[in-house]
Amino acid sequence: MREEAGATGGGRTILAELRGGLVLARDVRGFRQYLVVRALLLAVELAMPVFVLQANAHGAAAAGDLPVYVFAVALSAVIASPFWGRFADRASETVMALSGALGAIAGIGMIAVPALLPDLTSSYVMAIFFVLLGIAEAGIRLGRKTYLVDGAPAEERALYTAFSNTVIGVLAFAGFAFGILADVVAPAAAIAVVVALALAGTLAARALPPAERMTEGQDATARPD
Q: Which CATH topology does 27-207 take?
């Protein structure tokens, strides 16, 4: 393989990149909306351990039940790929909205079945909601990636991606709050918060502009001196 010489000039420091990302978040409304959607839907991506706690609290997560949930998560991955792939390239914002709604439905099911139909609370019934959550997680991941790749200007795509990943990475540390809430109150309480955030994320995703219009009317390449 012949390797061409790489660029050696124009390097940017971490602080300069952070300033640039903050400018984008301030000036590009579509990008700012995208960050809000990602932050809200992060709850769905962090919900799986809380689902396990809820199942365990109602006697549906004994050691012998774990293979059922492992299979459920694997099945969700198999289903999600072709399902979301058909929509992501056409309307990635719709994929995020539908995924948020599906995550909320999964959470409602995890709360409602043990509370209203305790006789049906088994690993096989609860696994249905694990499948739905797995599909929702996959849709959120695919939708957010596709939206940003399609919407960010090519010359600043790395900055858009790095800044959004950093912001969401910092927020992910707050995920421990779900564990605290589940331990202090009940797993169902933590799932109720996930449901509320997922529904808010769904509404926020529906308000997103199409990816190709994310930076429309904005100075999307403005950078601080």
A: Growth Hormone; Chain: A; (1.20.1250)
* CA distance to 57, 129, 153, 185, 194, per residue, from 51 (Å): 10, 9, 38, 15, 10
Residue 84, classified by CB atoms within 10 Å of its CB into exposed (0-12), middle (13-18) or buried (19+), is: buried
Pick from 58, 37, 44, 159: which is nearest to 106 by CA? Answer: 44
- Cα–Cα distance between 30 and 211 in angstroms, integer? 9
* Euclidean distance between CA atoms 131 and 73, whole angstroms: 6
Task: Evaluate whether 32 touches 148 at the Cβ level (below 8 Å).
Answer: no
CA-only gyration radius of the chain, Å: 20
Tokens of 65: 């039940």
Please give the structure tokens belonging to residue 54.
């809820």
What is the structure's pLDDT at 193? 95
Whole-prediction pTM: 0.87
User: How do residues 143-155 score in pLDDT, each as one tens digit?
Assistant: 999 999 999 998 8
